Amino acid sequence: MKVKTILVSQPEPKMENSPYSRLIEKEKVKVDFRPFIHVEGVDAKTVRQQKIDLSRFTAIILTSRNSVDHFFRIAEEMRFKVPDTMKYFCQSEAVAFYLQKYVVYRKRKIYVGKRNFPDLTTLFKKYKDEVYLLPSSDVLKPQVPETLDEAGINWTRGVFYKTVISDLSDLRHVYYDVLVFFSPAGIESLLKNFPDFKQNETRIAVFGNSTIKAATDAGLRIDIKAPTPETPSMTMALQKYINSVNKK
């Protein structure tokens, strides 16, 4: 069956000429975006109950834009003035760049990994005497605490925000040729919103091994996978699949 409509379970990209824009233009398909999950911040009282005292820490580990936003939100709620001496260890350049929303970049001590969390290991070992805070979601990849423990540093995790399943009830009678997922939580959201979901001719596209496992465990048929050596991005995987089925 040809692909004419795609639903991506993430917010629409803010960049004008995104890979999805090029896919829409080239393949003449309709692509909608709808977050299947969203983030909600916890309040300062909940953070205090975790015995988190912001004044104890000399370094902050930031894994995403959400961690940046919610660290500074909690600091404001607690009336804690983040000292200029605070060190920031950012998982990627994108996170470090986003940090500029809150701090004057050139005046701060900011350390950046390449892309994956373990890339920060060398920096952690170099600054092993710091007292680190990891502001995180209630859902944390096992790789993160494993990396921090292996680095032998003094670190504390604080749950500053939670991943929540979005209400998708308005989509109950809307059908798409392809559903695109990027996390196990997205698969969970699909099944909680639509417990009687029947895949039938709907194609499922998944990104990453953990998402593949979640989809397989849920009994879904996976038609499109990324990343692969041939298709390192989801849009490339979609493009390849569309080319194979729409030209028959």
Automatic annotation (TrEMBL):
CDD domains for this protein: HemD
Transmembrane domains' residue ranges: none
InterPro entries (UniProt xref): 4pyrrol_syn_uPrphyn_synt_sf, 4pyrrol_synth_uPrphyn_synth, UROS/Hem4
Pfam families in UniProt: HEM4
Signal sequence annotation: none
Residue intervals of the Tetrapyrrole biosynthesis uroporphyrinogen III synthase domain: 19-235
Gene3D superfamilies from the UniProt entry: 3.40.50.10090
PANTHER family tied to this protein: UROPORPHYRINOGEN III SYNTHASE, UROPORPHYRINOGEN-III SYNTHASE
Protein name in UniProt: Uroporphyrinogen-III synthase
Species of the source: Robiginitalea marina
